[in-house]
Amino acid sequence: MLYDVVVVGSGISGLYAALYARREGLKVALISKSTPLRSNSAVASGGINAVLKTTRHDSCRDHVSDTLNGADNLGRFSAISGMVVGAEAIIDELQKMGVMFDTDENGSIAQRPFGGTKAKRTCYIADKTGASITQTLLTQCRKEGVKMFSNHLMLSIATFNEKLSGITILRRRDSQVIAFACKSLVLAGGGYAGIYRGHSTNSQESSGDMLALALRAKMRLVNMEFVQFHPTTLLNSGTLISEAARGEGAIIVDETGHRFTDELQTRDKLSRDIVRHQLAGHKVFLDFRHLGEALIDKKLPSARKNALNGAGIDIVTELLPITPSAHYTMGGIWSRDDASSDIDNIFVCGECAYSGVHGANRLGGNSLLEGAYFGKIAGINAAKAAKKGKFQPIDYAQVAKELRYIDTIIEGESRFNINTMRRNLGNILYKNAGVFRNHDSLANALEYIHYLMKMSSGLSCVNKERSDNVELLSIIEFRNALTVAEAMVMSALAREESRGVHFREDFPDTNDVDYKVDTIIRRLSGTFLRISFEGHLASDWLYRIRKFFHVM
Hints:
Blueprint: E1 2-8, H1 12-22, E2 28-31, H2 40-43, E3 48-49, H3 60-70, H4 77-85, H5 87-97, E4 111-112, E5 122-123, H6 129-144, E6 147-149, E7 152-160, E8 163-171, E9 176-187, H7 209-216, E10 221-222, E11 227-234, H8 244-247, E12 251-254, H9 267-279, E13 284-287, H10 293-299, H11 301-311, E14 320-329, E15 332-334, E16 346-348, E17 353-354, H12 366-388, H13 396-411, H14 418-432, H15 439-456, H16 470-494, H17 512-515, E18 518-523, E19 529-534, H18 541-548
Parallel strand pairs: 1-2, 1-9, 2-6, 9-16, 15-17
Antiparallel strand pairs: 3-5, 4-5, 7-8, 8-9, 10-15, 10-18, 11-14, 12-13, 13-14, 18-19
């Protein structure tokens, strides 16, 4: 199959990229390993940040300042300022597409406060913002002629003479490996918080596939140690209770009713406060009762529904037990402000990318904005690259190699339980590479990851059917998760300081002298990984020279 632009990932960033590439008159395919409405974007509840003409007591300067402060001195100013200035245009465009943001008594877009901000800046649709935006963008993509391929899992990047030629895909309906040839490629396949199985707000499909295959293609991964834990998730399931709840006035208390923390501080600090209180022997609850049923049903209907379905608790009259869970990953595939990556004609956006916006800690409401803004940039630049480029030959030896890999998984003898191994990985990561970590805990996690890597060679499908084989997908995802987990824990071991969401008990202070730079991880020969610390400009000098002399 030949397409000018292929976009992998159906969240907000992928949909935006596909839409803008298509608007350049190109043939565009959008690949999703499940269905578009299962993306993390679709379950993002709280809202999207923007300084609007009607926003009171706020400015783009304050939005930039809040984002930089939240990033704990690792944010990239150029990326942040571009996103902040472009936010109002994104909101206007979404409205024109049909997104019905909540409004105030004056008919202006309503905005609520989120943690770490100086003003009410977050636009919202009750507490289902992400789902509403995703549905609207999906409808728009279909209307404008983007070709959708659901239930297709990307396996690898195909190259010819070190130039992009396309990608290999597992077609889930019959377990066949197929190739998509393209002139440019956009990776927008989401993050990796789902590897914390049993302790994550993400679905198990959030296994870091994009990052694993990028690492295998010798692309750089950046700041993998920075995993954000959402402070308010259901105690026994990890189901997300949006920051919208605290933005509307819900408070955090213990079993005595004591309000022991500031609910609107940044997520990293709030999560640490909650875990410390739990370690001191307390239970922690989210209290909505003072808000009243009318406000809850109007502005927080999903929170009430999730509490009832997930914990059997009516938040109108009862306290809701909560705990932090892995939620969002700041680390990702290295990219520039124009969404380009280490390989010409490959662009990255959304949670799988390291855009430089979030640094060491993301502010709530910035992720949907980042996805839309950089998705738009990726789509525009992918289209430009495709117009200048040409199709490269597909090496079908690579397709055959992937097919043999799939056949081995399906036809081999299964010796271990994949679900048990996934849960064990999640448990060990939460315990040893969670809100708090130290050298010994991280070393233990890394040792266990290497043990699971050896064991994973014995994973094969019990069900030998090739039609929609769920086991096959799970095994591929798990092996990707192990690759990502290794990179994450190695990066956490290397960063001997505390910064943002990365809190080392053995190095509790921030060290700007040695670590006010990005953690870069590369794959060298075989499975050997190399870690270095680099500033953004140091990583980008060759590209800037080539661009200056117009050889791109």
